[in-house]
Design goal:
The complex is a heterodimer of chains A (321) and B (645). Chain A is elongated, with a radius of gyration of 28 Å. Chain A is mainly α. With 645 residues, chain B is mainly alpha-helical. Chain B contains 24 helices and six strands. The radius of gyration of chain B is 27 Å and the shape is globular. The chains are: A mainly alpha (321), B mainly alpha (645). At the A-B interface, α1, α3 and α4 of A face α14, α15, α17, α18 and α19 of B.
């Protein structure tokens, strides 16, 4: 069943595609059964769709989705199913029919079901109440702020940087001036292979002995990275370094669309320089073991390693113009 | 015949002249105050330092935002301390008292600013229509609208007074500073309020007296003036909050530099203006729709039910027409916030307040889902609409998937064990849904689906008969499919390009979505010209679920306004005026999400209890009975593109 494998990078599309296909198949099945005079009653169809989606998000998606998000998904799905079964008066009457049949106890079978429901519902509520009052020994839930707001300025090795306007001095074009476009164009190809555009061209391969300017600085940043950062952040910058699983949470995955791709380069510069101890108050519960690299690296080295991270992942730092 | 045309034209000219004369008179305070707008025109500047030599006379300051020099003629922002001198208090958290007073004033203010705009549109529609019965119907509807707002207007004024007293009593140092900076326009604001009051009362009480001919045009003109004043008032009030978030026109000590336009025209003023105008309209539509639903549910006979069903439909349509562009206005506001201060933007959408934004996204989703649901229910009152109802499940799927993506949090609530099981903070699925690119795709898909529901509603009981029907239908299907593909493609492509380019892509997404609205809806109406009727619309014959949907729509609007107001205000963190005047009161911390949500809910409940009182007052002393349902139903609802009935 390898064709059913979820592939990192395509998973978001796969999930929506699979759900859409399942719903279409379900509609087709129901339509065929209806034509054969055995259509699934609306009540059971609604319950069936909800149960299917709950099972899908609980067991199909890996790594497991935290309960808080599954609860959101489950609730929204339930609202959607309600909208579907009550979208027209005829559908709503059809949906309600088995419920009212049981409540009215129109046949012995319905009366039996009513009795069972009257016993099970209070028991279920009681069980739920009991569970919620049971003492729990799990670690408490944390609402961790992954990207706390940076300060307006940060001081590093005696120099103050205004984070809104500061620029990476090594992100330069062929004329030695700051050039976002030039450097963006020389990032690795953002694809599953993460390829360098042309390994034989010193303009694209930082490890080419003739690489100059921006590419040379990327290489120097890479050297800093592999001497200091890769133990935690990993060879592929995906947060799976040798020591990564000693920590919880594991280090940031720079290849994820939600980390450095969302941030200004100065933000990453500030985070690297100040590390976990420099996190502001809003970054509760300050779950970061990253050292304040300003104590170990020069300012230039920090700029270069940040640039290397963007280059390697193929992401571009956020800008506003 | 010719004489009649000349007579009508003369009446219109006279009405327009009257309108301009009235507008000019009411805007006189602004014209009088205009010289004060120039920086060099402030005599007070010289007065402050009278008797000093020329060199000592004017201390110069540098504008914190515009970066230009100006005479520092204002006093510096007070450096407050946690004492009763700066923060007098009752035995209660002052911030909560101010919060409640502010929010209630804002709710009522929004409502009374929005309703006259609706009245203007509906009254105009009544005057333009040739069908006398219809004209009467529209006129009655506009009157019903303004009747609700007139009591609310008094309550707004009372709440405004309470708000000022709360400021003066609990935050005197801050309020003193703010009013010193805005002194040049404070009285203009007060005078505008007088003008607004005079106009609205004449407009309301003069309804019956000015019901025909030239007087009717003058009456309509008054609603235009009323709305100009109302909007100006709102923009002035917005300048205060804009100044608190992104101050300008002062130096770093907070000293006023003599240019009131710079103080008003802050980095966030215009985005706030646009966002609030649209927000007020959507909110106003929601509240009137809830009023109609309340009257529908308590109706004693079919006539009343038919009237309030129609009223609810029109109000909902107006509200939703302004709800659709609202997310785009919000996007612009957030973009400007990020451009103004990166840390402010991150605090809002990626940091401390990010979860509140997830709640906001959920509320937006509820609004759109409820709108769709109402429209599907409304199909039930039309013969022939069953042919659309069988496809509802597919629309539900698109809406649900769009919403799931839209509300997937970037910062996930989880236990350390779940975090470990997930193998890091970033999830390969959720991580991709949690960023802006996917969310833009989600919300655009939801809006497009809503537009499609609307088009189905327009076609409910009608079949196009134009000769090019097949071409028209194919064109519409292709248009929607291309717009949908464009949306998904751009949402996906957004992951592979720099953020500044991605922000540009959102414009293309918005254009695709709005094209569906502004091209497809009128196109559909053209196709429906002379369409074959499959049966009448049975106004009042709609499931009660639809009316609860309207009430839910209004409640969701109210809750979301409260939430967004809290977010906007709390993003200043421990500043009264961002980076200028620090909040040193004991309440300068950010509330927990749960506590904030409780206060918002309290505000919502309080508003709805009081507005129910307003609704009840609206049922007393009814001057005009609803027009009997036996009269023909509207041929074309107002404003376009409501429906084709």
């Amino acid at each position: 069943m390898t064709w059913l494998k979820l592939v990192e990078g395509y998973m978001p599309g796969q999930m929506i595609g699979e759900l859409a296909l399942s719903i279409l198949l379900f509609a087709l099945l129901n339509w065929s059964l209806k034509r054969a005079g055995m259509g699934i009653p609306k009540f059971w169809a609604g319950i069936g769709v909800w149960v299917f989606i709950w099972l899908y998000i609980t067991y199909r998606i890996y790594p497991p989705i935290p309960f808080s998000v599954r609860a959101i998904y489950g609730t929204v799905t339930m609202c959607g199913i309600f909208m579907w079964v009550s979208g027209s008066e005829a559908d709503w009457q059809e949906f309600k029919k088995p419920i009212f049949n049981v409540m009215d106890g129109i046949t012995p079978r319905h009366r039996f079901l009513r009795t069972v429901a009257l016993i099970l519902i209070p028991l279920g509520i009681g069980g739920f109440a009991y569970q919620s009052y049971l003492p729990s020994f799990d670690e408490p839930i944390e609402l961790r702020t992954v990207h706390p707001a940076p300060p307006a300025t940060t001081k590093l090795h005696g120099k103050t940087f205004v984070l809104q306007i500061a620029e990476n001095p090594f992100r330069v074009g062929s004329e030695g001036k700051y050039d976002q476009e030039y450097t963006n164009e020389r990032s690795v190809v953002q694809a599953m292979g993460r390829l360098v555009k042309d390994v034989n061209d010193p303009n694209y391969n930082p490890w080419d002995p003739n690489a100059e300017g921006y590419m040379k600085y990327v290489r120097e940043g890479g050297e800093v990275f592999f001497q200091n950062c890769h133990f935690c952040h990993g060879d592929n910058l995906n947060g799976r370094g040798l020591w990564a699983y000693a920590f919880n949470p594991i280090p940031a995955n720079f290849t994820d669309a939600g980390t450095i791709a969302q941030l200004q380069e100065t933000f990453v510069f500030w985070r690297v320089a100040k590390g976990g101890p420099g996190l502001p108050g809003e970054a509760f519960p300050w779950a970061s073991v990253m050292p304040p690299w300003e104590q170990h690296l020069t300012t230039d080295e920090i700029w270069k390693v940040v640039m290397f991270e963007y280059w390697h992942t193929g992401y571009y730092p956020r800008t506003w113009d | 015949m010719g004489g009649l045309i000349v007579k009508t034209a003369r009446k219109k000219i006279l009405a327009v002249t009257g309108l301009f004369a009235m507008g000019a008179m009411l805007l006189l305070p602004i014209v009088v105050a205009l010289p004060a707008l120039g920086a060099e025109e402030f005599p007070a500047a010289a007065g402050v330092v009278e008797g000093q030599s020329d060199e000592e006379k004017i201390e110069m300051g540098r504008d914190v935002y515009y970066k230009i020099e100006g005479p520092a003629i204002g006093r510096p922002a007070p450096k407050t301390e946690d004492t009763t001198e700066f923060y007098p208090r009752y035995n209660f958290e002052s911030r909560i008292l101010l919060w409640v007073a502010n929010q209630q004033h804002l709710y009522y203010g929004s409502f009374v600013l929005a309703v006259p705009i609706f009245c203007m549109c509906i009254e105009l529609a009544g005057m333009m229509t040739k069908d006398k019965a219809m004209a009467k119907r529209y006129d009655q509807l506009a009157y019903d609208f303004i009747k609700i707002s007139i009591t609310a207007y008094s309550i707004t004024a009372i709440l405004g007074g309470i708000l000022i007293f709360t400021f003066l009593t609990l935050y005197p140092a801050f309020f003193g500073y703010l009013s010193s900076v805005f002194r040049p326009v404070m009285h203009i604001y007060a005078l505008m309020f007088v003008a607004e009051s005079a106009t609205i009362y004449i407009y309301y009480y003069g309804w019956d007296m000015m019901k025909e001919g030239l007087l009717k045009w003058l009456h309509l003109s008054m609603s235009v003036v009323l709305n100009v004043i109302g909007t100006t008032l709102m923009m002035l009030a917005n300048s205060w909050i804009g100044f608190m978030m992104s101050p300008s026109g002062v130096d770093e000590k907070g000293q006023y530099l003599g240019n009131i336009w710079h103080v008003i025209h802050t980095a966030l003023w215009n985005p706030l203006n646009i966002h609030r105008i649209l927000g007020n309209m959507a909110f106003g539509g929601g509240v009137v729709a809830a009023y109609a639903a309340y009257r529908f549910l308590s109706a004693k006979n079919d006539e009343e039910r038919a009237h309030y069903d129609w009223m609810g439909y029109v109000a909902m349509t107006l509200g939703v027409a302004f709800l659709i562009p609202l997310p785009f206005a919000g996007y612009w506001l957030m973009r400007e916030v990020y451009a103004y201060r990166q840390q402010m933007g991150i605090t809002l959408m990626g940091g401390l307040l990010a979860w509140l934004f997830i709640i906001q996204a959920t509320m937006i989703g509820i609004l759109f889902l409820t709108t769709n649901y109402y429209l599907w229910q409304a199909l039930g009152r039309m013969t022939g609409a069953e042919r659309f109802q069988r496809y509802i499940k597919y629309l539900v799927f698109i809406l649900v998937v769009g919403l799931l993506v839209f509300i997937t949090p970037h910062t996930i609530v989880m236990s350390p064990a779940e975090l470990k099981a997930m193998g890091g903070q970033q999830h390969p699925v959720l991580g991709n849904y949690g960023v802006m690119s996917a969310k833009n795709g989600g919300i655009n898909a939801i809006i497009m689906t809503t537009i499609l529901s609307f088009i189905w509603y327009q076609r409910g009981n009608r079949v196009p008969t134009v000769s090019w029907t097949r071409f028209g239908n194919t064109f519409m299907i292709v248009f929607f499919v291309v717009a949908g593909i464009n949306n998904i493609w751009l949402a996906t492509y957004g992951y592979f390009i720099p953020a500044n380019v991605r922000i540009g892509l959102s414009v293309a997404q918005v254009v695709g979505t709005l094209s569906c609205l502004f091209i497809m809806v009128p196109f559909n109406l053209v196709m429906l010209k002379g369409a074959r009727q499959l049966g009448p619309i049975r106004w009042g014959k709609i499931p009660v679920r639809s009316q609860y949907a309207l009430i839910m729509l209004a409640t969701a609007f109210t809750w979301m306004m409260g939430l967004m107001g809290y977010i906007r205000s709390s993003v200043r963190l421990y500043w009264h005026v961002n980076e200028i005047m620090r909040d040193n009161s004991p309440w300068a911390y950010t509330h927990t999400i749960g506590f904030a949500a409780n206060v918002i809910s309290f505000n919502v409940l309080f508003f709805w209890f009081t507005i129910l009182f307003v609704f009840w007052l609206g049922t007393l002393g009814v001057k005009k009975a609803p027009v009997p349902a036996a009269e023909p139903v509207p041929a074309t609802p107002v404003p376009q593109p409501a429906t084709g009935h």
